[in-house]
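cron nightly-structures :: item 1 of 1
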Amino acid sequence: MQLRIKIILFAILPLLLALSAIALTIHFQAVSLMKQQREAIEPIYRASKKAELKNYVTLAEQAIAPFYDSDDMDDSKNWEESLIPASTLFKA
């Protein structure tokens, strides 16, 4: 092998190894950070969804409460009227 090729190989090979090591380190650090962020955010996200669901249930209960509390719920017409506001709550 010529001296020129040896010098180029000895210059490029360590550079490629260093760049590969840096890329692998960055990849594993990014994966680790992603897992940490997911573990930190997931309980907060679940709590907000639970609160949102509770608000929807409260809203639905308040919408049908006047019909439910009335004494003349024997009529099927009144029951159908009470279902109309509940169905309009969830339309986006």
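cron nightly-structures :: done
The chain has a mean pLDDT of 84.
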